[in-house]
Design goal:
The complex is a heterodimer of chains A (451) and B (345). Chain A is mostly helical and 451 residues long. In chain A, 71% of the residues lie in helices and 8% in strands. Chain A has a domain at 183-402. Chain A has helices at residues 3-18, 21-42, 45-79, 81-115, 122-151, 172-176, 181-210, 214-249, 251-258, 290-296, 318-348, 355-363, 366-383, 394-397, 404-435, and strands spanning 156-159, 166-169, 264-266, 269-276, 281-287, 302-304, 386-388, 392-393. In chain A, the strands form 4 sheets. A two-stranded antiparallel sheet of chain A has the order 1-2. In chain A, strands 3-6 form a two-stranded antiparallel sheet. Chain A has a two-stranded antiparallel sheet with strand order 4-5. Chain B has one domain. The chains are: A mainly alpha (451), B mainly alpha (345).
Chain lengths: 451, 345
């Protein structure tokens, strides 16, 4: 295989694996802030038990997130040297800010969060929890800013030619607040909150089904359900805003999301479907003119289609982009329905009587994870053939000096190590869940003193 | 070109990057160093104490690597891209070892089984030794220069050319220096039998360090042409190797007086002086080309724009007091001997 394809596979694999963890850390971070805040406010030890329990799982997700994140930071240089030289002036300052403001904050307070229970006061511990949570939120900001700049570049000019060409900052704030960054940061944050909330929902639904830790599980379930309901609903808006920005700034990507080929005609919206890359036709269930309506509030309004672009400027994998995007949207819709119905039952007071619903929640942990993954795949594959939209092609961005054998070597290394890491992660999380927040069998009374 | 305090922006950023990598070497120096002693502790409890001595700190210390690499990317993108793509294999190994090391810290004490702990102990020990070794190897390769042609294109070997005799020597010296640093740090954090054992081990470590340091220095002077040129030009800078020598000599004296905190300061200073030596020797070159000097990567042809460097210097000016504050608070919180509890590794 050629170097470019291998470099892309390696990047996709390492970033997708990495992205299992940071969203969980961000989401769990927010929930732990709630839990520990409730403990400080009410003095109810149940919340402390919950905080300590989720902290153990948080420690795992955070640790693997950091370890796999360092690799990403170096991989730009090792595998994408031309790209790194091209964007260093812009991308670099976002990365430096991320390191200094976000990673410094979260990693320094992480030590206190994990090991400082007996060394600092509860208040200082709570501040550390907030510090780690804010740090993880900031790190999402800077990395999404950098990625958004690749999608919708702003605040820059191109200096030099051919080999020496690169983008340089002309306006820092225009670069940071490029057209897509704010909507995408919110969208990414919300995806992360959902990932964390559904992990909590899933674990406590499991306990409730088994009749274990019933009291605290109800508390935790309600906290997570409240968050999940609000976020899955508002996710719809940030998603819609993001799509509008894509329509304005990356028309070829938007056309690929819905498989819209016709150069200048009304665009349909599909509930599901299949794009034939050869015949350039989509078969599936559609709302005629739906995309036109969503973007322009008019079913007839034309939308630029893929045929308006020369073949070499279109994403090559239209069907993949289409499928990833539609899986994400479908999951989003399903989560809205699920959380709204559960909240309705909560209001009715019958939430915890429905075993079948709890079972769905127990498995639902996978859904936001899948949505986060496919959402990014749609965003990144939809950006192709560009690595910096409109300026630098992916085929020009990889390291010219690196041989395909070297990448194959590192790719195999990653596959092996990450597989082991993933199995260890599943094993440890599973073990911690099975063990539970405290030992019920050994100390049936221990919990009573908390209440 | 814009200046601040009489120094142009690329030079200032060179100092920032140097400071960050010095911080990384000093802080992760004792983390990796402590881990490089791991198999020298016989009892499981000793090994747990040694891991928990760095337990709350290592994640924060690692941030210096992340920020350092970020600063290199941000300020000298050409250097970042050229070095990493040319040294593809050593960096990939380095990264894998970092992942394995993190996993070992997290998972080692999670199970009671003997085989489980033994496996992780070997991985932990091995990754710490090899990471330290590879850092030295990278440094040596930079000092020797790369086969760089026009447009920074790398013409050298792909897989094992980075493992030349000089690189191996600097690698071993780095391992010994980190082990010295790690043993002193552990002396600060332990008590009783483990403490006594460490006093014994540190003596061996110091000998290992002094021998490899002397050999490497000699090799450098004899086989690396031109390393002394800069000093002939600016004799005042002879003070750096002199200070390095004095701070090395000071370590055994302080250790024998049981002033471990001061000993740690001086072994940290040793690293700082040695890195200053390298930085001074290279400046303004970042990555010498062995083909022709005009192909070398320098702080000027590798630098980001004035505008960008100005922004980043502002970011550093705002961010570094914050970072210093976090670190002071963290180290103050975990000052003193290790006490295992139910949150420990």
């Amino acid at each position: 295989m050629d170097t470019e394809i291998l470099a892309r596979i390696q990047f996709a694999f390492t970033i997708a694996f990495h992205y299992i963890y940071p969203p969980l850390s961000i989401g769990l971070g927010l929930i732990m802030v709630f839990m520990e805040g409730m403990y400080l406010k009410t003095g109810n030890k149940q919340y402390e038990v919950l905080t300590r329990f989720w902290l153990k799982i948080f420690a795992l997700t955070f640790g693997i997130g950091v370890a796999t994140g360092i690799i990403m930071e170096f991989e730009f240089g090792t595998n994408w040297a031309v790209y790194s030289r091209y964007v260093g002036d812009i991308f670099g300052s976002a990365l430096a800010a991320e390191g200094l403001f976000a990673f410094g904050l979260e990693s320094a307070f992480l030590g206190i969060l994990l090991f400082g229970w007996n060394r600092v006061s509860p208040k200082v511990h709570f501040i550390s929890t907030i510090g780690v949570f804010l740090g993880s939120m900031f790190s999402a900001v800077w990395i999404v800013v950098a990625n958004s700049w690749q999608q919708t570049p702003a605040g820059y000019h191109i200096v030099g030619e051919d080999f020496n060409a690169r983008a340089e900052v002309t306006d820092f704030w225009a670069m940071v607040f490029n057209p897509s960054s704010v909507d995408r940061i919110i969208h990414v944050w919300q995806g992360a909150f959902l990932a964390g909330a559904f992990l909590v929902l899933s674990v406590h639904a499991y306990y409730l089904i088994k009749g274990r830790y019933v009291e605290i599980s109800k508390k935790a379930f309600k906290i997570a359900l409240g968050l999940a309901t609000v976020i899955s609903l508002t996710q719809l808006f940030s998603g819609h805003r993001s799509a509008e920005v894509v329509a304005e700034h990356q028309p070829a990507k938007l056309a690929a999301l819905e498989g819209h080929y016709e150069a200048n005609g009304a665009a349909d919206m599909y509930l599901f479907g299949w794009v034939d890359n050869e015949t350039q036709e989509v078969t599936g269930l559609k709302v005629p003119g739906g995309l036109s309506f969503l973007l322009h509030q008019d079913f007839e309004e034309p939308v630029t289609g893929l045929k308006a672009f020369p073949k070499e400027d279109r994403p090559s994998q239209v069907n993949a982009v289409f499928q990833f995007y539609h899986i994400m949207v479908s999951i989003g819709m399903f989560l809205i329905g699920l959380t709204l119905y559960a909240s309705y039952l909560w209001w009715r007071g019958t939430l915890f009587e429905k075993k079948w619903l709890l079972r769905i929640f127990a498995f639902s942990v996978l859904l936001p994870q899948i949505a986060n993954q496919v959402g990014w795949f749609a965003a990144e594959m939809g950006r192709q053939p560009w690595i910096v939209y409109g300026h630098l092609r992916t085929s020009e961005g990889f390291s010219q000096e690196v041989s395909s054998n070297q990448i194959l070597f590192s790719l195999i290394l990653f596959l092996v190590v990450y597989t082991i890491l993933f199995l260890l992660f599943l094993y440890s999380v599973n073990k911690k869940i099975k063990q539970g927040p405290y030992d019920e069998a050994k100390n049936p009374d221990e919990f009573l003193k908390y209440v | 070109m814009e200046t601040f305090l009489g120094l142009d922006y690329p030079t200032l950023w060179y100092l920032v990057v140097g400071l960050l990598f010095s911080g990384y070497a000093i802080l992760e120096g004792f983390d990796y160093g402590a881990g490089a002693w791991h198999l020298f502790f016989r009892k499981d409890l000793s090994r747990r104490i040694a891991i928990n001595a760095i337990g709350p700190l290592w994640d924060a210390n690692q941030v210096w690597l992340i920020i350092g690499a970020g600063a290199l990317f941000a300020g000298f993108p050409v250097m970042y891209a050229t070095m990493l793509s040319a040294m593809y294999v050593p960096f990939m190994l380095f990264l894998m070892l970092l992942v394995l090391r993190s996993a070992a810290i997290k998972f080692r004490s999670a199970e009671e089984m003997k085989w489980w702990r033994k496996t992780w102990d070997i991985i932990y020990f091995g990754s710490n030794v090899l990471i330290s070794f590879l850092l030295g190897v990278v440094l040596a390769n930079i000092l020797q220069g790369f086969e760089l042609g026009e447009h920074y294109s790398y013409k050298g070997g792909m897989f094992f050319s980075f493992l030349n005799p000089y690189a191996i020597m600097v690698g071993l010296t780095t391992v010994s220096l980190f082990m010295t640093q790690g043993a002193i740090f552990l002396l600060l954090k332990t008590e009783g039998r483990l403490h006594a054992r460490l006093t014994f081990l540190l003596k061996k470590g110091m000998i290992f360090f002094i021998v490899s340091f002397a050999a490497t220095s000699l090799y450098t002077l004899v086989f690396l042409p031109g390393v002394t040129d800069k000093f002939k030009e600016y004799p005042i800078f002879f003070i750096i190797p002199l200070l390095a020598f004095l701070s090395v000599a000071n370590i055994p004296r302080l250790v024998s007086k049981k002033k471990y905190a001061y000993a740690l300061v001086f072994s940290s200073l040793t690293m700082a002086f040695l890195l200053m030596l390298v930085a001074f020797q290279l400046y303004p070159v970042l990555l010498p080309s062995t083909i022709a000097s005009e192909y070398s990567v320098t702080i000027y042809n590798a630098a980001s724009s004035q505008k960008s460097l100005g922004i980043m210097l502002t970011i550093v000016a705002i961010g570094s007091p914050l970072l210093a504050g976090y670190f002071l608070f963290l180290y103050k919180t975990f000052n003193g001997k290790v006490k295992l509890d139910d949150t420990s590794y």
